[in-house]
Amino acid sequence: MPSQPTTRIEARFRDLRVQHAKGLIVYLTAGDPTLDATGDLLSALDRAGADVIELGVPFSDPLADGPVIQRASERALRAGATLRKILERFPAWRKAVRAPMILFSYYNPILQYGLEEFAVTAAQVGADGALVVDLSPEEAENYLRAMRAQNLDTVFLASPTSPDHRLERAAKLSTGFLYLISRTGVTGERSEITSSVRPLAERARRFTSLPLAVGFGISTAAQVREVQAHADAAVVGSAVVHAIEERYSQEGPAAIEQFVRGLKAGTGGKPV
Amino acid sequence: MPIDQSTMRSEPNTGPNARGRFGEFGGRYVPETLMHPVEELEQAYQLARTDPNFKAELDRLLKDFAGRPTPLFPAQRLTERLGGAQIYLKREDLLHTGAHKINNCLGQGLLAQRMGKTRLVAETGAGQHGVATASVAALLGLECVVYMGEEDMGRQAPNVFRMRLLGAQVVCVSSGTKTLKDAINEGMRDWVTNVHDTHYLMGSVLGPHPYPMMVRDFQRIIGQEARQQILASVGRLPDLLCACVGGGSNSIGLFYDFIPDTSVKMVGVEAGGRGPDLGEHAARFAGGKPGVLHGSYTYVLQTEDGLIASTHSVSAGLDYPAVGPEHAALFRRRRVEYTHVSDREALEAARLLSQVEGIIPALEPAHALAEVVKRAPGMPRDQMILVNLSGRGDKDLGIFQSAGIL
Prior knowledge:
The structure holds 2 protein chains of 2 kinds. In chain A, 49% of the residues lie in helices and 14% in strands. By secondary structure, chain A is α/β, with parallel strands linked by helices. Chain A has a 9-stranded parallel β-sheet. The relative contact order of chain A is 0.18. Chain B has 16 helices and 14 strands. Chain B has a 6-stranded mixed β-sheet with strand order 3-4-14-9-10-13, with helices on both faces. Chain B has a 4-stranded antiparallel β-sheet with strand order 1-2-12-11. In chain B, a hairpin with a 1-residue loop joins strand 11 and strand 12 (295-300). In chain B, helix 4 runs parallel beside helix 5 (128-140), helix 10 (221-233) crosses helix 11 (249-255) and helix 14 (343-357) packs across helix 15 (363-375). The longest helix of chain B has 18 residues, at 32-49. Chain B is globular, with a radius of gyration of 20 Å.
């Protein structure tokens, strides 16, 4: 089989390794509070040193998300953000942002768009991959075929409740990085990182050499530093979305850039 | 001598397959944290269903706690009034807690106990499933949390008080459309957080595999009894089965054991609400298309962008945008016909049954009765319709009053 060209995500993690640095992955909901704002915010995150950006596709029934991202989804849906409109805007965002960007979605919007059409369009507009939160490896065959055909990265999740056979399958089907869920529960900020991160990361290491990213509940630079003792990157979602909710309308993208710079400091790395 | 049709039958064999699929429908679409718990649930259920002790305990509680078997009642005055086919009512409304929901709650409650879970979470729309879950939790000594949409808490207030009296915590869900769909979202968020000690007691044939199969298995007793009862009293099978379809547990419960009986037609009745526009009804087979919601691939009311649509029905128990995946398969195979009736037709049918038979039905089965009102007059007098009267109308008195049906 001919080897595929290196993806933007692979290149970014390779650069981080060369620098002996860890990565910061940042989530925001597309269209929160508007699609125009998303363009400004993506540039702000990029300047602040986000190594990968997860761009959330708002959904009417975000059952894996806590209140902060639920509210962001509602704001984005009120602003008219749909998968179609997000993909239409993507080329402009891609031009302005160096960091790899993956789409973070529930399955139904992608299924209704059409799996193949989604993959083809996502590749055309410059997206680097996707993470589909309610699509298990068991149900992902057609999705994987469509994504592989476009050389798009597919990130799957592993949880503290995943036994080894599930962890192995998630690792095998993931490209770019493997996303480790720090604890059982929905997305949202927490004051403490649970003790389940380390054993999960150690188990995952037995099955894969992919970069490991840890998310769910990470909201401060100190927590970013803490999880990076066991993983290659930390994912911060709700805390960033919360900052957007509280500060964007008054202070603009600069305030969010500053907040993410603070998180980036937790990685010991510098904005590229 | 009549042929004993009860010995001449094969298992319905509609699935699901090992991957939880009924034809192309069903499956398992949940966040990774819940995937292993649903695998464990499936294993525990497969062990339980073949364990004679489990079956004996469930049978005992169905009889002594819930009040099974329920009668099959010939509705003679309703039959005379409509002037066509003979109408029989399967009286699930006479069960303890007021609806068929208790059949499933006892089964899953015992299973949760076997699995060492100490806490039940459930969603409820009309409140009947919540009341049944709360009752079983009290019976078995388990903690119980029920999620209920803000709109439903208002319109089904008596059931909220019942659940609290039974010791359950009722959590008001104010997100999204504030109805059943949002209660399920919130219940699943609770489950994903507390999965180590908590069983999610799904109230209908919805959700990821094994729920649609398991809930059907616990509800099929409705059709098993009804089939034996009609054969014993009349000596032949009915010509038509009729049941309302929200998620679809009472209807699959009635239909399932009749599926191999090719002479028996079946009709599932969805909520037609106020009209055909998206958001005004819950008629998934009329206005929906296949998609994924709450763990299952099935018919879903949705926008072109794959966002889940809001729904409307006067009946909280039918006010939901997706339908159980086995119904989707039965629809695709054309084994069951699906139709819908309006809020107004259901209210009128509830008034009719109350006044000619002395039985006040819940608004959910009133939808099935409204379809019978349409069909019976056009059928010959020697034909039989068997209707699942899945619940009683006590919870709906406020709605009947404000709807001005008197």
